[in-house]
Design brief:
By secondary structure, the chain is an alpha+beta fold. It is about 55% helix and about 10% strand.
Length: about 170
């Protein structure tokens, strides 16, 4: 005898049509492909462009704030930096204030690549902005920013009450 619960197909369709996470993932993948294709001639992906742009500052930033800006952990950031380092587009330097920490800096070659990529990004972005419906890009950015600033606590679902199992253990329904 199986305790497997069958989820009705109508629920699958409901999730397909209403899941914010699914819709954001699909849009992100489509936009990523668009920008990847556009930036390919200068040898960048959309993620590399964003990462390099986040380093375009008057002073080399530490890894923590860059990781936070890009919504990634430092391990993921370190992995993303490696190909850019190998190409000579960024330097990872010791922080003179704390030798255990690292600072990130665009090299002259990295700045040149970023300068070539910027007009491509601008034209691609303008084309996308022009195709967005009422409310346009400003509204979409505002909504996405609100969604991305949610903490796990804010978005935590409510749990069903616990009921005791046979043998006294509590379960969540």
């Amino acid at each position: 005898m199986s305790n497997l619960v069958e989820i009705p197909f109508s629920t699958t369709l409901l999730v397909r049509d209403t899941c914010l996470c699914l819709h954001v993932q699909r849009a992100a993948r489509a936009l990523a492909r668009l920008f990847d294709d556009a930036l390919r001639p200068v040898g960048l992906t959309n993620g590399q462009f964003s990462l390099m742009m986040s380093l375009n500052r008057p002073e080399p930033p530490p890894m923590g704030p860059v990781a936070a800006l890009l919504a990634m952990d430092q391990t993921t950031l370190t992995a993303a930096l490696k190909p850019l380092q190998r190409r000579g587009w960024i330097d990872v330097m010791e922080n003179p204030k704390d030798r255990r920490r690292r600072l990130l800096r665009l090299t002259a070659e990295g700045k040149a690549v970023l300068a070539k990529a910027l007009p491509i990004w601008e034209s691609t972005h303008a084309a996308i902005d022009g195709r967005l419906p009422d409310g346009g890009p400003a509204r979409l950015r505002q909504d996405l920013q609100a969604a991305s600033s949610m903490t796990a606590e804010t978005a935590k679902p409510t749990r069903s009450p616990r009921r005791p199992r046979a043998g006294g253990e509590a379960t969540v329904e």
